[in-house]
Amino acid sequence: MFNPDPNHLQAAQDLKNPFLSRVGVLLRRDRERYQPGQDVTVGQEMVDGQSFVRVWFRTRGCSCDRQGLCTMCNYGASDTIPDGIVDRVREVLSGDTVPSGATVLLSPSGSMFDTREVPTAVRQALFALVAETRAASIICETRPETVTFAAMQEYQSLVGDKQAVVEMGLESADPWILRWCVNKRLSVDQFFEAAGVCHDAGVTVAANVSLGTAFLDPAAAIDDAVKAAQKAIDSGIDACVLFPLHVRRWTVLEWLWRHGLYTPPSLWSLVEAILRINQGRQGQVSTAWYRDYNEGNPAAVAAMPVLASPASCPRCQLRLLAALDTYRDQGDTDALEAAAAVPCTCHDSIPTKSVGADPEFVAKCYVQMGQDVLGVPWWDSHGASVLSELREDWARRQTGA
Q1: How many CB atoms lie under 10 A from the CB of residue 55?
Q2: Checking DSSP bridges between strand 247-248 and strand 306-308, what pairing results, if any?
Q3: Which of 109, 211, 387, 391 has the fewest CB atoms within 10 Å, i.e. the most exposed one?
Q4: Are the CB atoms for 224 and 355 separated by under 8 Å?
Q5: What is the tens place of the pLDDT at every residue in 293-313?
Q6: In which order are the strands placed within the sheet that holds 137-141?
Q7: Higher pLDDT, 10 or 88
Q8: pLDDT(192) > 60
Q9: What are the tens digits of pLDDT across the range 120-138?
């Protein structure tokens, strides 16, 4: 792992949210796990005019997921990485799976450079396999905490003349939202420090940003996503990927959704965010997962089912999805601007003026969640200190202390 500045370590420590972590662990306690044979999936679509091949492989699951982190995440869990996973990936990459010039997303169910999840020898073998294909670039996802200069150098070396890309989850650039709404336990400085390590090794960096973060109203969610993407790009990140959130089973988002305290972002919110980010930054922002790409994959549906997805009203949903497909395929905003020019009552209902996060709404949700998930006795003993810390942190943010 890289060795961040001690001030960054303290910032990450300050982002810990034991309450949400405890809730997350309990909500995931009884979830289904991947079964033998549900090891590798492959999918293909067009992105920016190029073939984009997604190869997912099963591991033990994200180490942070096991700690109850990230209010939105559930990408499945297992006991260990399956034996023979390299051979299975070799099979799906054989033949014409990867067209010339394609991008390959090689994705574990967590972080590629977390050796607790993907052993070093497995990771090296998988990179070597992709290097043998006709792909022009390879993307893998990992958490910033798993980045080291040595690992990035090795990655660049193993893929040869292909562009090596690392996607990392920034989610939000607001420390208060990261702590009390996302439970990411990552400082913004840590993210950019890891990005610098990647760049020093010649690896391209993409920042993943969430749209529809828990506890934020639609206007605040748009504003937060726009600010995070703009900060990432203006700070030298090579590209930004905007992820509108789905409600997945066994997550804090699911609990909020079931209790009427959360709705996935509207497709109009996604269009609004993309158009705002692209002002002066054309071509640096893409989007993903505005559809549920796991539909039709029984293994993925069983282990990480989606309960609710970004949507709009029936009158404009197909039109918006087509416009987003065109934006994803071609990388320009013309189709989105044309879609936004056609009026719809559901578009008019999306607020765009934001007053930011509402700590009292977060506190209200915490009270209900704490009593329901952790139990009334636990909340009666600990709830006052949880809310006190939440409000004190908010006050420090307002004063800049």
Answers
A1: 23
A2: antiparallel
A3: 391
A4: no
A5: 766 666 556 667 899 999 999
A6: 40-47, 50-57, 103-108, 137-141, 163-171, 204-211, 239-244, 285-287
A7: 88
A8: yes
A9: 999 999 999 999 999 999 9
What predicted TM-score, i.e. pTM, was given to this entire model?
0.92
- State the pLDDT confidence band at 229, using cuts at 50, 70 and 90: very high
| Residue 293 tokens, joined | 């790409």
Are 250 and 28 contacting, i.e. CB atoms less than 8 angstroms apart? Answer: yes
Q: What pairing do the DSSP bridges indicate for beta strands 137-141 and 204-211?
A: unpaired
Radius of gyration of the chain (CA): 21
Determine how β-strand 204-211 pairs with β-strand 239-244: parallel
Residue 14 CA to chain centroid, in angstroms? 21
Residue 371 has pLDDT above 50, yes or no: yes
**Domains of the chain with bracketed CATH:** 6-357 (3.20.20.70)
Given a cut of 70, whether residue 12 has pLDDT beyond it is no
pLDDT at 373 over 90: yes
Most distant CA atoms of the chain, gap in Å: 61
CB 173 within 8 A of CB 227: yes
Q: Which two tokens stand for residue 308?
A: 């609710």
Indicate the residue type of 12. A
* Tokens found for residue 369: 């969640």
SS (H, E, C) the chain: CCCCCHHHHHHHHHCCCHHHHHHHHHHHCCCCCCCCCCCEEEEEEEECCEEEEEEEECCCCCCCHHHCCCCCCCCCCCCCCCCCHHHHHHHHHCCCCCCCCCEEEEEECCCCCCCCCCCHHHHHHHHHHHHCCCCCEEEEECCHHHCCHHHHHHHHHHCCCCEEEEEEEEECCCHHHHHHHHCCCCCHHHHHHHHHHHHHCCCEEEEEEEECCCCCCHHHHHHHHHHHHHHHHHCCCCEEEEEECCEECCCHHHHHHHCCCCCCCEHHHHHHHHHHHCCCCCCCEEECCCCCCCCCCHHHHHHCCEEECCECCCCCHHHHHHHHHHHHHHCCCHHHHHHHCCCCHHHHCCCCCCCCCCHHHHHHHHHHHHHHHHCHHHHHHHHHHHHHHHHHHHHHHHHCC
Residue 237 CA to chain centroid, in angstroms?
A: 16
